[in-house]
Every structure is written in C-alpha cells, then in structure tokens.
Amino acid sequence: MRAGACVAVVVGLLAMAGCTSAASTPSASSSPALSPSVTAAAFGEHLDISDPAVAPVADGEWPAQQDGYEFSTEPQGAAEQWIANHYPELWAGGARAVTTDVMRLGLGGNSDIIPSALVQYYDGKRYEGTLESPLGLRGGLNPESYNRDIFNWATGGDEVPRTSPGRYAITVENTVSASANLNQKGNKSTTPVFRVKVTYRSAVGDDILSDWGGEPTSFNSLEQAVDFFKENGFRAGDGRQLNIGELTMILIADAGGQRTESHVLDPETWELVDYAPQH
C-alpha cells in the first residue's frame, strides 16, 4: 500500500512496546553462519555491491534475522559490512537488517535516500519491523521516548524539525461536511465520521499509507478517537504495534463545520492542542 504523494501533514503516534524483545548481551562472539547468498563470493557473482541502491540480501536472510544472533558493534559477515560501508548513519544507529524495497529520506533530504530498517538495536534492546511496516526509529532517538520536535512545531514552534522522514504519522480526519454524511438509509446525517490513516514517511512520492491495523477505523467524535487510542495505542497497516519513538504527531482535523478545525494529540497527556504552526 503506497500513497502516490506525500501526506500533506505529518502526524505521529504513540505505541505500546509490543514489537520489542529482549536482546542478548552485546558481543562480537558467536557470529552465526552466513548463508551462501550473503558471502562475499556470492556478492561478486550476483550483483555489484558498490551500488548502495541494492541490498545484498533479502528480508529474512540478514544475520540479525537468524536464530542465535548476538548484537555486535563490529560487522558480522559481508552483509553487515555492506550496511556499515554504505550507510554508516544506519549502522551507528543500531540498524542490523534493512530493506531497499522501502527507501526513506535521511536528514539530508532528497539527496540522502537510504534503506529502511527491519532490525535495529538501542541500548541493548532489539526492535523489529516488517516490509509492510519498517521501523520508524531515527538513529540516536530513544524508541521508548516520544520525541516532541514535530509536536512542538505543530503547536506554535517556528523551527521546522528535520527528523520527520522515516517515522510514522497518523491523521484522524472528517473530510466531509457533517450535513453531507449519509446514514445507512441514504439520508443526510449530522453525525460526523472521523477516519484514521497511518503513514510511513518514506522517499518522496513513495509513502506507505494504510488503515490503522489494516482495517478501516472510524469514530463519531474526537473524544471517541482519543479514548480508542488510549486503550489500543497505534498500529501500522500490518498490525504491528508501534513504539512511541517511531511517531511524529497525531493530527485530528474536523471539516464538518464552516471551517476546518485541527488539533494535535499529545500522546503523553492525551490533551488536544490547537494545530498552529508558524509556517
């Protein structure tokens, strides 16, 4: 599920810790045996590994995705060496498995397009994503802590942050005038319908847009939406529970009146704050 164009507003999400697992003590020992597809010889036979736009192995074949893997700051095999050589930012940020099927923008903008992470470590803890929902963790940011840069900008800050690409956004939007909504009998109804969309900010024109948890989710009021998120957290389109550090901001927009009213949800206090960026 890809959106043809970037979603106009960045949004972020809170999530429970459902996608984490305890990591073993960081160690360079006990390196797992690599499959033939990730050996240096195979690289030369099948592809040019000097081209950073091509991943050396497919999802599921990275050393970090094999049983018995132990984290190390030193590359374990040719596949990890490829990450360290071509994408030192990702390597330093703990990425140990990536996918070039989903590329995202780095902090350098359009000139800095890099793979998305599938396995990443932070402070000894392991985090896992999927091809449908790559990890939205920026190197150096705590996955268990909400980074408020986008939230602060959206609620009145004048400095546009540079940490949005490669993270997740959520919109809860009533795009149709309340008087134009149709009930089940086809008659006009004044009940608003707020629908939820989840967006992974990847490369320009290549965002991943999905429903919350892969299913259409809607509410009849802002309060109902907030209560739902309090109880269920936030999920990507394949159902993966997102970590709070993967989120930018949660934008709730109501176009049911004479003008659109937009709010940003604080995922720590659950307060709705007016959306009011300076530019």
Write up what this structure looks like:
The model is unreliable at 1-47 (pLDDT under 50). This protein is an alpha+beta fold and 279 residues long. The strands form two sheets. Strands 5, 6, 7, 8, 9, 10 and 11 form a seven-stranded mixed β-sheet that branches. A four-stranded antiparallel β-sheet has the order 1-4-3-2. A hairpin with a 6-residue loop joins strand 9 (247-254) and strand 10. Helix content is 14%, strand content 24%. The chain folds into two domains: 20-128, no CATH class; 149-274, no CATH class.
Strand and helix map with partners:
Blueprint: E1 20-21, H1 40-46, H2 78-86, H3 88-92, E2 95-106, E3 109-122, E4 125-128, H4 149-154, E5 168-174, E6 194-200, E7 208-211, E8 218-219, H5 222-232, E9 247-254, E10 261-265, E11 272-274
Parallel strand pairs: 5-9
Antiparallel strand pairs: 1-4, 2-3, 3-4, 5-6, 6-7, 6-8, 9-10, 10-11
